[in-house]
Design a protein that fits this description.
Elements: H1 2-15, E1 17-29, E2 43-44, E3 49-58, E4 61-62, H2 68-76, E5 82-96, E6 100-113, H3 115-122, E7 128-133, E8 139-145, H4 147-153
Antiparallel strand pairs: 1-5, 2-6, 3-4, 3-6, 5-6, 7-8
Length: 161
């Protein structure tokens, strides 16, 4: 019985396979229009951000195609005022099980922030914003919500005055 169990565990181990490949290191990457004449005003973020775009596979048939542009967009959109990522890495990750799998592009980098975009987007009077911070107090994510969403969820939200 022990031999059958051991053989089964070894067989299942070979049927579930995962892989991560470092595809690219980059100095600067963006999917946005960046005005380089204002480059001296740009600030580097304190924390690295990442973005991912992936698709599932069923019976070796993909349900789409992972898109690197979407991964870059998702990383850039996590930080208010971010226009690009600097000093980063692009990975291709995948895993396979018996009948299904997953394939994705993951991008990680330091945000390059245009302060003029932050001031014009964040200080809009009459909007409600949720700011998610990490343990060190740096902004991880910021999003705008409606007044109704705020009223429904305000018991869960920590408010600073």
């Amino acid at each position: 019985m022990k031999k059958i169990t051991l053989l089964l565990i070894i067989s299942l181990t070979f049927l579930v396979i995962g892989c991560s490949v470092r595809m690219l290191d980059f100095t600067l990457i963006s999917t946005k229009n960046v005005d380089l004449t204002k480059a001296s005003q740009f600030k580097r973020g304190n924390n690295r951000v990442n973005g991912e775009d992936g698709v599932y596979w069923i019976l070796y048939f993909p349900l789409g195609s992972p898109n690197l542009k979407e991964a870059v967009d998702r990383a850039i959109e996590k930080i208010p005022g971010c226009i690009a990522l600097v000093d980063g890495v692009v990975y291709h990750e995948s895993w396979w099980a018996i009948l299904t799998g997953y394939s994705s592009y993951v991008i990680e980098g330091t945000p390059l922030i245009d302060p003029s975009l932050i001031s014009s987007n964040v200080n809009i009077i009459g909007t409600y914003n949720i700011c998610v911070m990490d343990k060190e107090g740096y902004i991880k994510e910021m999003k705008t919500i409606s007044k109704e969403e705020f009223e429904n969820d305000k018991s869960k939200i920590f408010i600073l005055k």
